[in-house]
Structures are given as C-alpha cells and as structure tokens.
Amino acid sequence: MPNVTVTVNGKSHTVDVAPETLLVELIREKLRLTGTHVGCDTSQCGACVVHVDGAAVKSCTMLAMSADGATVTTIEGLANGSTLHPMQEAFREHHGLQCGFCTPGMIMTAVDIVNRKGGNLDEHTIRDELEGNICRCTGYHNIVKAVGAGARAMAGGGKSAQAAE
Amino acid sequence: MYAFKYEKPWSLAAAAALLSESGDAKLLAGGQTLLPAMKLRLAGPSTIIDLSKVPGLSGVTREGDNLVIGALTKHVEVMNSAEVQKSIPALAHLVSVLGDPAVRNRGTIGGSLANNDPSADYPAAVLALNGTVHTNKRKIAADDFFKGLFETALAADEIIERVSFPVPEKAGYEKFRNPASRFALVGVFVAKTKDGVRVAVTGAGESGVFRVKEMEAALAKDWSPKAIEGVKVSASGIIADLHGTADYRAHLAGVIARRAVAKAG
Ligand SMILES: Cc1cc2nc3c(=O)[nH]c(=O)nc-3n(C[C@H](O)[C@H](O)[C@H](O)COP(=O)(O)OP(=O)(O)OC[C@H]3O[C@@H](n4cnc5c(N)ncnc54)[C@H](O)[C@@H]3O)c2cc1C
Ligand code: FES
Ligand code: FES
Questions:
Q1: pTM of the predicted structure, to 2 decimals
Q2: Measured between alpha carbons, how far is A109 from A129 in angstroms, rounded to an integer?
Q3: Ligand 2 pocket, A38 CB below 6 A?
Q4: What is the CA(B30)–ligand 1 centre distance, in A?
C-alpha cells in the first residue's frame, strides 16, 4: 500500500492508505480526528472543509494521495488548549449552531474568509462566501452574525488563524 | 469509489505515456468533477494520473495580443490574477461566480474544458472569445473543440496544456444561477474583437455551449443591448427539465445576453 506524509495540526504523520482513500477518510478514520464531518459526500455541503496549505478545501473531494507533503489544519487545530479560537467563541456567543453538524466546516470556511478578506466583513460578503456551506438547522442568520463577530475578534488581536496554521 | 492505481508523473511526456498505455486511465486535475463522479460510480477508471506534479501547466501570462492560461491553473488563481483582471476582466468575473470558494481553490480551467458540462461557465468564455485549446498534440480552435454534451474533440490520450484567448476590445459575462446548484441555468458571454462579435450561451443547449449568430450580426452593426432586443433564441435543442422549460430558457438567453452586453459597456 502506498503511503502519504501529511502534517496535520502541526504534527507530521506517515500513513499507509489505499489510493482511493479520500482526505476526509484519512483525517477521520486513520488519524481519528472526527471533528471534520461528512454531510453529503457529493461535494456540496462543506461540512468537511479543512485547510490544505492554507486554503479551504472540501476534504471529501480530494484524494489523500494528493495531500502528500501538505500541511493540513482541521477544526481540532484551531483552539489554543482550552481557549477557543475567536471564531469558535463567536459561534458560541451568537448561537451560530443548533445541531452543530455543519459547524466545523462553517468555522474552517469562516477563518479562511478572514485570512483572505480581513476582519471587516459586510453581511453580503459573508453570505456570498458561505455559498459552499449548507446548514439545515439555523436558517443562517446567526451563522452570518457569528462570522462577522468572529472576524472582528480575529482582527482585533485574538489568536490569529495564520499562527495556528 | 472503485479501487484504482494511482500515478503521479513528473513530466508531461510521462503523463502522456501512462495515459496511452492504459485504456481507461483518467487524468486528475482539481478533482472537483472527477472525484464526485467516481464516488457516485459514474466513473471507474483503472488508473488515476494526478497531474499536480507536471511542471509548466499552471499560471497566467500575456503573450502579445493573447492571454494564456495553463490547464492546471486553479479557478481562484484566474480570479485573482492581475493580468486577467487587466486583459479580460469579464473572465475574472466569470470565475468569481463559478462554484464556491473551496471548489475554486481546487478546480482548474483544463478540467472544466475537458469535462464540457453543458452548464459550465468556462466553455462560454472560450467559445465567445474565440480561444484556442493547446494540447500535447495540437491546437484546437474553440469552434472545433466543443462537440456536444460532455464531449470534446480531445482524443482519449490527449492532454490540455493551456488555453489562449485573444484579448478582446470588450467582453461581458452574465450568469443566471440555478438557485440550488448555482451552476448556470443560462449564462451568456459576449465579446467584441477586431475580428468581429461572438456570443456564446451556456446552460441552455442540449448539446452544450452554442453561438447565436443572429445576435452576433446585430451586435456587429450596433454594440448595444437594444440591438438584440428583437432577436429570439429558438427553443428547439434547448434543455427542458424541472428547473425550467425550453421556452423559459430560450427567453432567458435573450434577457441575459442583453445584460451581458450592458455589462461589457
Ligand atoms: C459544488 C460544486 C459547484 C460547482 N459549480 C460550478 C459552476 O458554477 N460552474 C462551473 O463551470 N463549474 C462548477 N463546478 C465544476 C468545477 O468547475 C470543476 O472544477 C471543473 O468542472 C473540473 O475541473 P477539475 O480541475 O476539478 O477537473 P477534474 O475533476 O480533475 O477532471 C475533470 C475531467 O477533465 C479531465 N481533465 C482534467 N485535466 C485535464 C487536462 N489538462 N487535459 C485533458 N483532460 C483533463 C479529467 O480526466 C476528467 O475527465 C462545480 C463543482 C462543484 C463540486
Ligand atoms: S461532505 Fe464534503 S462537501 Fe459535503
Ligand atoms: S447547525 Fe445543524 S446543520 Fe447547521
């Protein structure tokens, strides 16, 4: 079986994988990091979003083999010990979740938006950028609020996501 | 997903050799179309040839009057390219409304063109701008490249290397998104070049992207939305499905074409 070497949340792993293994399967089943979810498995819902070399990708739509040599950040990599990342804290504060299934993907996407666009995001931008993330519970209003607040908190000197990657 | 053999060649020649050796191998670019198809078992290639390590397939350059985009250039790179924004802003806009950020971070122009989805955005740009698809074997003009539903002129062992676009005087792209999938229900790309005007419609044709010659003639005389007000797109050969009837899409094509011209200025 071929192997891949990936650095996930700062830790390097070399793992044997069958070629058809998806990145999300490597993360959940081999590394047992089950915070990254599989919602649709058809590339639409965004529950599986992680950062690969600093860019948000749907980990259900990338082969583990294609991630060889890459640096991956998952939802588990955001918090600093027991202190939540400002974006996680904002989701809690603003009730940006109900069942929570979409939340890991929402937060990874949200952090990526802030990394690209900065901390001052208007509602239109947030809704537009969340296009690839589907939530079946909340109706999105509180997610949008949480992303806006989390973005301001990240810009305001909270632990930056870049530092986490 | 069915099991397959995974190859990651380091040169175009090696990729081409692998492709012609194995009858049903598939090239992997961004995987944003191929992997979903494999997961649904609509595709089951024996070998996957990952192009990501093949050098020279990525990036945007301006060569004289042409904008040249490598096949492996990701949607996000085209969207953010200062050269694209300067030379053909309509193209940068097109990519900004293609898929979502995560899809744009992986998907490529070469994969989109090779796939030729009837609702994809890039085919409209290549056809309207009279682009040329450069492969490891030849150059294929846009008018000869798109052959029908998910069909192109590419041979089974042919690899797209890059796409060149003559820089137009004016161009505009307008997309009416399917509210669920966000693919084009109808998308129209219009371009005015020194060789004339071209209008390409995606999302609507049963055989994929197509040109509307009557609109081209009208716009050649008078480049304005008004000039094509009277031009009707025939509903024959237009997609009809639960998202819209053929008549609806044909009508929409006219509306969207006028908006595309207005946008081009
Ligand atoms: C949720 C979602 C939303 C999307 N929305 C849109 C949208 O709104 N508009 C739109 O246009 N597209 C959309 N797409 C499709 C997206 O643009 C894909 O990235 C694109 O169609 C395929 O590019 P890829 O690089 O991912 O190709 P892959 O999936 O890797 O490959 C696709 C096909 O092309 C072949 N191929 C790849 N590269 C080459 C090459 N260099 N030479 C020859 N053959 C090659 C492959 O063998 C395969 O058959 C969406 C996809 C998803 C998952
Ligand atoms: S599980 Fe990956 S997009 Fe839904
Ligand atoms: S909170 Fe349940 S899917 Fe979003």
A1: 0.95
A2: 8
A3: yes
A4: 7
